[in-house]
């Protein structure tokens, strides 16, 4: 009782150690001095080249699959194909239907048009009775065994058929999983692990380590510069505030002094005016107005 | 010139696909079909055509063995190869051999009924 799952075509698993060895060996010897920049550029170029080569490899694998498919499709589904007499056969997932647990349903369907539903059952009961009654079939102990064991078998199948079916289905699913599903999942996991490992390994390569160190120092310098400028700005702001304070303070003092002085002078003058001086000033004003009046008229 | 055993087998088509088999016409090869036979099936022939039909058959013993192989594959592809199978297979394997063996060995064990002393 085997399924055809064993004929499946499996994907290859990636080899981690080979990839890591290849990349690590390339990155060990780094020259110092003027050749350093060139070497780093070459190293990155080499890594890029190897990645391009890997891409080409995978592309050819895919293209061969498509070529094979096209070639076979042309053969098996071309113009000459006879679909009426030789239709494409698919593997059925289940057994054919079965009556009484033993006999296929198609045998019963053949009788249906002529005799109806009970035809084959009557045949199965009537023919043995006829043969036994006419002594064409002499019943001996073997015959009795047959007559008794057939209903016993049918009862066994009716009782335990479902359980056996479930067990077999579980076994078939187990086979499918172990041959198809798990290898693909394992390949996917190995790919993900490879990606993670290469990323972590790249951090430890000397070129990457030094360049990363430089970059980190640059970042720190920039941060320090930012802090310095911020503090400069704050200093300028506080100094300006204090200067304006002093300026405004002096201006306020000055204006207050001016006002006070002016007011004091005015008050002094108004206080010093005696009533006699006032009278004389008013009379002088009247005399001047009288003198001016004829001129206006 | 006398024919060797292998020559007879190869002439009948043993060891290779049928000489009429063409994937462009017949599609994927299935071992339960006879690719060399364009005759009507036995259950679809009229009763009056039966003798003529029987005359057209190939009674070469190698062809009989091939027919038995095709019958085995027909049973296999329908009852054993599918993914979900169950108890009917077991019951069939018990019932049909029992019945056939009883019929084939009838003469041997029928004496028990007729004999006076067992």
UniProtKB/TrEMBL annotation, chain A:
Location in the cell: Mitochondrion; Mitochondrion inner membrane
The entry's keywords: CF(0), Hydrogen ion transport, Ion transport, Membrane, Mitochondrion, Mitochondrion inner membrane, Transport
GO terms under cellular component: mitochondrial inner membrane; proton-transporting ATP synthase complex
Nucleus among keywords: no
Listed InterPro entries: ATP_synth_Bsub_B/MI25, ATP_synth_F0_suB
Domain of life: Eukaryota
GO molecular function, one term: proton-transporting ATP synthase activity, rotational mechanism
Keyword presence, Mitochondrion: yes
Pfam families linked to this entry: Mt_ATP-synt_B (PF05405)
Quaternary structure and interacting proteins, as annotated: F-type ATPases have 2 components, CF(1) - the catalytic core - and CF(0) - the membrane proton channel. CF(1) and CF(0) have multiple subunits.
Listed PANTHER family: ATP SYNTHASE F(0) COMPLEX SUBUNIT B1, MITOCHONDRIAL (PTHR12733:SF3), MITOCHONDRIAL ATP SYNTHASE B CHAIN (PTHR12733)
Family: Belongs to the eukaryotic ATPase B chain family.
Function description: Subunit b, of the mitochondrial membrane ATP synthase complex (F(1)F(0) ATP synthase or Complex V) that produces ATP from ADP in the presence of a proton gradient across the membrane which is generated by electron transport complexes of the respiratory chain. ATP synthase complex consist of a soluble F(1) head domain - the catalytic core - and a membrane F(1) domain - the membrane proton channel. These two domains are linked by a central stalk rotating inside the F(1) region and a stationary peripheral stalk.
Protein name, entry field: ATP synthase subunit b
Organism: Macrostomum lignano
Lineage of the species this protein comes from: Eukaryota, Metazoa, Spiralia, Lophotrochozoa, Platyhelminthes
From TrEMBL, chain B:
Any one GO BP annotation for this protein: proton motive force-driven mitochondrial ATP synthesis
Cell compartments where the protein resides: Mitochondrion membrane
InterPro entries with a match to the protein in the record: F1F0-ATPsyn_F_prd
Main location, first listed in the record: mitochondrion
Keywords recorded for this protein, A-Z: ATP synthesis, CF(0), Hydrogen ion transport, Ion transport, Membrane, Mitochondrion, Transport
One Pfam family it belongs to: WRW
Gene Ontology MF term list: proton-transporting ATP synthase activity, rotational mechanism
Gene Ontology CC terms: mitochondrial membrane; proton-transporting ATP synthase complex
Family membership noted in the UniProt record: Belongs to the ATPase F chain family.
Descriptive protein name: ATP synthase subunit f, mitochondrial
């Amino acid at each position: 009782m085997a399924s055809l799952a064993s004929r499946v075509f499996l994907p290859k698993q990636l080899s981690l150690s080979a990839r890591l060895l290849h990349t690590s060996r390339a990155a060990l010897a780094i020259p110092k001095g003027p050749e350093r920049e060139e070497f780093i550029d070459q190293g990155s170029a080499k890594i890029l080249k190897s990645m391009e080569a890997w891409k080409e490899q995978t592309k050819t694998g895919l293209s061969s699959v498509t070529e094979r498919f096209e070639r076979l499709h042309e053969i098996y589904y071309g113009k000459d194909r006879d679909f009426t007499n030789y239709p494409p056969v698919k593997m059925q997932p289940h057994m054919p239907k079965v009556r009484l647990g033993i006999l296929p349903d198609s045998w019963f369907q053949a009788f249906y048009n002529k005799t109806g539903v009970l035809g084959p059952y009557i045949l199965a009961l009537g023919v043995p009775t006829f043969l036994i009654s006419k002594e064409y079939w002499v019943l001996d102990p073997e015959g009795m065994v047959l007559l008794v064991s057939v209903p016993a078998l049918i009862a066994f199948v009716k009782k335990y058929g479902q359980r056996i079916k479930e067990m077999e289905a579980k076994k078939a699913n187990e086979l499918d999983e172990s041959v198809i599903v798990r290898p693909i999942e394992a390949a996917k996991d190995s790919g993900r692990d490879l990606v993670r490992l290469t990323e972590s390994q790249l951090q430890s390569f000397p070129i990457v380590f030094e360049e990363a160190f430089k970059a980190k120092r640059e970042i720190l310098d920039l941060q320090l510069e930012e802090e310095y400028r911020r503090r400069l700005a704050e200093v300028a702001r506080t100094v300006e505030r204090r200067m304006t304070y002093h300026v405004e303070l002096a201006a306020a003092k000055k204006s207050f002094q001016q006002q006070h002085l002016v007011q004091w002078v005015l008050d002094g003058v108004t206080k010093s005016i005696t009533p006699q001086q006032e009278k004389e000033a008013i009379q002088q004003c009247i005399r001047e107005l009288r003198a001016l009046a004829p001129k206006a008229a | 010139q006398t024919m060797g055993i292998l020559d007879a087998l190869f002439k009948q088509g043993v060891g290779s696909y049928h000489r009429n088999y063409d994937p462009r016409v017949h599609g994927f090869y299935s071992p339960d079909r006879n690719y060399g036979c364009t005759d009507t099936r036995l259950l679809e022939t009229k009763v009056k055509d039966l003798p003529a039909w029987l005359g057209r058959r190939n009674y070469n013993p190698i062809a009989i063995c091939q027919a038995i192989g095709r019958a085995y594959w027909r049973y296999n592809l329908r009852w054993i190869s599918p993914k979900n199978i169950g108890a009917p297979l077991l019951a069939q394997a018990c019932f049909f051999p029992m019945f056939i063996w009883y019929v084939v060995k009838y003469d041997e064990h029928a004496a028990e009924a007729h004999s006076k002393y067992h």
